[in-house]
Amino acid sequence: MAGIDASPPRGLEVLREIELFQGLRPNELGKVAGAAQERRFQSGAFLYFQDDPADHLHVLIEGSVKLTQLTPEGQQVILRYASPGEAFAVVAVLSNMRYPVSAEAAEDSLTMVWGREIMKEMMMQHPQLALNALQVLARRTREFQDRVRELSTERVERRIARALLRLARQTGRKVSEGVLIEMPLSRQDLAEMTGTTLYTVSRTLSKWESRGIVKSKREQVTILFPHGLVTIAEDLPADKTGGFEMGDEA
């Protein structure tokens, strides 16, 4: 693993709002936090690789992590980005499993890490933790099913619009021009997220820029007109755009 161990784990304030640890009492959270290590990863470093033995569970504290999968044909697909406060590699708590994806730091990142055996022991001691892990896995499975449906049935413009809205809800920051996706995001990344080509993404973003919907720079996208992007993502008439709030679920 490419990370470098840092200072002792931060404690309750980090875990209190994270889905995986909901319902645990303060003393239980303290025990869980005390069993973790902190690891820092420079941008571009891999936390783990697809098909490696799944031996660590991560919670992202700072930065962003790109989760990718290599298809049998050798094509890389970006499945999702993890943002601060998310647990990932939850599969590590299951016996004899391998990581189904690779995890790469999209920017300098900090995670709290538990070894598989340590986390399994924590779950034995605190059953709520095991129930939460099952809920996380169930939600992620539903998300992946939705992604497969999108890739199989929806036209490319809708897929790109949905991907940008998901990222905006995860990491979006309101700026004077609109909503800035506050993480490195190249056009190639968007192509890998939406199952299309770099050319198609570039052509689509250029068209949206001319319509005042988005503005893109090198590894940066700002959504200038969120309602317009919702219209494309949901295939709505132009006068029925619906709302857009960064806190809404995708």
Could you explain the architecture of this structure?
- The protein is of the alpha+beta class and 250 residues long.
- It has 2 domains: 4-152, Jelly Rolls, CATH 2.60.120; 157-234, Jelly Rolls (Sandwich), CATH 2.60.120.10.
- The chain is 38% helix and 24% strand.
- The chain has helices spanning 12-15, 26-34, 116-125, 127-153, 156-171, 187-194, 198-210, 226-234; strands at residues 4-5, 37-41, 46-48, 56-62, 65-70, 76-82, 87-88, 102-105, 109-115, 172-175, 178-181, 214-217, 220-223.
- The chain has a 5-stranded antiparallel sheet. A 4-stranded antiparallel sheet has the order 3-8-5-6.
- It is globular.
- The chain starts with a strand and ends in a 16-residue tail after the last helix.
